[in-house]
Amino acid sequence: MLTRPAPHARSRPAPRRRRRPASESRSRSRPVLLRRLGRADRWAFDRVAAARLPGLEYVLPRLSRFADHGVLWFTTAGALALSRRARLRRAALRGAIGIAVASPAVNILGKHAFRRKRPIVDLVPPRRIRWKLPTSHAFPSGHSASAAAFAAGVALEAPAAVAAPVAATAAAVAFSRVYTGAHYPGDVLAGLGIGAAAGLGTRLVWPARPPVARVIRAKGENVQVTDDGRGVVAVVNPGSGSGDVTRGILPGGTDMAVGLLRKELPAAEVVQIEPDQDVEKVLNEAAGRADVLAVIGGDGTVNAGARAALEHDLPLLVIPGGTFDHFARALGVETAAEAIASYRRGCLGRVDVAYVAPTTAGAGEDERLYFLNTASFGAYTELVDERERLEKRLGKWPALAVAAVRTLRRSEPVDLYVDGRRRRVWMAFIGNCVYGSRGPAPTWREHLDDGRLDIRMITTGSRVPRVRAVAAILAGHLHITPGYRAWRPGGLELVSPEGSIRLARDGEVSSLPAGVRFGKEAGGLAVFCPPGK
C-alpha cells in the first residue's frame, strides 16, 4: 500500500553558498600575506644576527655610527666639492639634494605612518651594539634611505671610479643597520628604494648632463707631438680662477697646471701674461713661433687663444685653469693631466666656432669677435656684471640668485630688429651649438660640431613679467616665462635703433656697432681632446 510522504519529508534543494565579493576575499588574504612577509623578515634578521663575519664585527658598527645624521655623506660631499672637478662637485650637490628629499620622506612621513617596532636583539652579540639603540620607529630605515639617495645622486654625475666606491659604502651602511640589530631587512630594503627614487628623481628639476660633448675627429691632419713638449708654446693667464672659493687655501689652478706642464713637458715654452699686457697681442706673438698653442686660463683666455690659433692655423691645447672652464669641460678635459695626456696621444678634434661681426660695408674677418660658449645681450649683460661683482664673496650660485633679483627688478627691455622684425628684447642668449639645459646660464652641450646657434629670447610687450621671470630663472626653467622664444638657426642679424649693442661673449662684456650678424665657422678650430670621449 502506497503512502504519501509526510510534508516534512519532502526533498528540498540544497542551499546555495553565497559568493564572497572579490574585495572581501582580498581583505582576508592581505593579512596572511603580511604575516608571511613578517615571518620571512624576522627569519632573515635572525640569520644575520647569528652570522659571524670576521673583520666586520669592528668595522660595521662604527660605519653605522658614522652615518648618523648624514655625517658620512656630507663629509664625502665636502671632499668631492674640494676636488675642483666640476663633475664631482655636481655629484656632491645632487647627492645632498637627494638626502634632503629622502630624509624627511622617511623620518617624518614613513615612520609615523607605519609605526613598526624595532627588532629584539637577543641574538645580536653585545660587541656589535656599542651604542644606544635608536628608539624611533623602524620602518623604513632612514640610514638606508640617505645612503641610497646620496649614492644614486653621485652615480648620475660622477665617473665609475668614484660612483662605485660610494655605492659600495652605501650598501655597507645599509647592511650594518641589520647587522647591528637596528632594523629588519625589510626596513632596509624599503629605505633603499625610497632613497634611490629620491636621488634619481633629482633629474626632474635638474637634468643630468652628459660627461662630454661629441667632437668630430680630425683625420689626415699632421700634428707635431713630442715627448718633451718641444714646439709647444703655453700662454698662462695667472689672473684666471680668482673666483675659486679655495683660493688662498689650496694652490691656484693655474699654478698647479704650470707646475705639471713644466714637469711633464720640460721643453715647452711657458709665457706668462703680465697684468699690464694685452692678452691678444701676447697670444698672437706666441702663436707665431709655435707648432701647438696651449692656453692655461679660463674661458675668456681660451677665447682669445682660439682666435690666435685660427689666424695661424694651429691646433689649440686647452689646459683648464679658470673658475668654470666651460669649454674645457665640454671637451672632457677637467684637469691639466688630462690635457697633457691628450696632447701626447695626438688626438685632434674639430669644433665649431661662433662669431659676431659688424654688418657695415667692408667689414671682413679681421673684425669678427669669436666665442666658443655663449653670447648674450639685454638684461643678461647686466646680470653677468652683477654676478661677477658678487661671485668672489658669495660663490657662483648665491651670486647668480642675488644678481637675478637685483637685475630683473630694474632692467628694461631694449628695442632691436631681430632678422628684420622689430622686437622689445628683455633677455637674449646665443649659444655656440645647441645647449641641453633650460636655465639662465646653460653649461652643457651634446655636440660641439652641429653647425647651429642656440638662440633664446624673452620678448615683452608694454609690461615686463618680472616676478615670474625671477622665479623661472631661480628654478632653472626659463622656457616657462611669458614671451620666451627659442630657435636654432645657422645665423642671426641684429640692428639697434639706439646706435649700439652691448654684448657679453664668454663672460667678456663689450660694446658693438648698431648692426651685427652672428654666424658659425663649422669645424673651424682644431683642438686636442681625450681619445674615446
Protein model, in words:
GO terms for molecular function: kinase activity. InterPro entries: ATP-NAD_kinase_N, Diacylglycerol_kinase_cat_dom, NAD/diacylglycerol_kinase_sf, PAP2/HPO, PAP2/HPO_sf. This is Bifunctional phosphatase PAP2/diacylglycerol kinase family protein. Keywords: Cell membrane, Hydrolase, Kinase, Membrane, Transferase, Transmembrane, Transmembrane helix. With 533 residues, this protein is of the alpha+beta class. It has three domains: 167 residues, Orthogonal Bundle (Vanadium-containing Chloroperoxidase, domain 2), CATH 1.10.606.20; 137 residues, 3-Layer(aba) Sandwich (Rossmann fold); 151 residues, Sandwich (Tumour Suppressor Smad4), CATH 2.60.200.40. Strands 1, 6, 7, 8, 9, 10, 11, 12, 13, 14, 15 and 16 form a twelve-stranded antiparallel beta sheet that branches. The chain has a four-stranded parallel beta sheet with strand order 3-2-4-5, sandwiched between helices. α3 packs antiparallel against α4, α6 runs antiparallel to α7 and α9 packs across α10. The radius of gyration is 32 Å and the shape is globular.
